[in-house]
Specification:
Blueprint (H helix, E strand, L loop, with lengths): L2 H7 L15 E4 L2 E7 L10 E5 L16
Length: about 70
Amino acid sequence: MTTENAANSLPKKQTIIIAPGEGPILAAFGDTVQVKLSGEETNGLLALGLGTTPPGHGPPPHIHHNEG
């Protein structure tokens, strides 16, 4: 499905309200990400998260070979 087709399949007017503190929290390498919108909620068009990385934390240096 192209982005244009996916966008056309969404309801024309839809409001999603995400309250402060709402959304599941994912944690790895000392980072946290609170998921505010997932691909399931946006028909695969968007994912939105609030990320926090304390100084000295985060993933180690690495490479993603399959991303363009």
